[in-house]
Write a structure and sequence with these properties.
The protein is built from four helices and no strands. By secondary structure, it is mainly alpha-helical. The two termini are about 20 Å apart.
């Protein structure tokens, strides 16, 4: 049961990272501002659903494995809070940006920066988690 809970948790983390990579690719490749805005609004639902799955499966694994409150758990909680904060800031920036204007180009750069930071948080916690045990 413990192994299965860990595998499901890892799969959801990989899925979240793939969504972030896809969003980075769309920001770089999509030239139509209105299409990009529509895509990012729709995908926000998928992103938040997968992040909820990551948090939920992490809680299930913590319960099944009967782990204590370790540095690894604190790092994962900090990563979840950072991801939620970055995505909330990106969403508010998207609401303010008007397609086909100069501010939308600024939004593209900020959104790209937010997604890169999100990906770095995932990689950092994923890479450090085995070492923090």
């Amino acid at each position: 049961m413990e192994t299965m809970a860990l595998q499901i948790h890892i799969i959801t983390i990989i899925l979240l990272a793939l969504i972030i990579v896809a969003n980075i690719a769309v920001i770089l490749l999509q030239k139509d501002d209105r299409s990009l805005r529509k895509y990012l609004r729709i995908q926000a639902t998928a992103w938040s659903t997968v992040l909820s799955m990551v948090i939920f499966t992490g809680m299930i694994f913590m319960t099944v494995a009967e782990t204590g409150f370790t540095v690894k758990i604190i790092a994962m909680i900090a990563a979840a809070v950072a991801l939620i904060t970055l995505e909330t800031r990106r969403h508010f920036d998207l609401k303010r940006a008007q397609p086909e204007s100069e501010c939308f180009e600024k939004f593209r750069k900020r959104a790209l920066r937010y997604y890169i930071f999100e990906l770095l948080w995932i990689l950092m916690v994923g890479g450090l988690a085995p070492k923090l045990s």
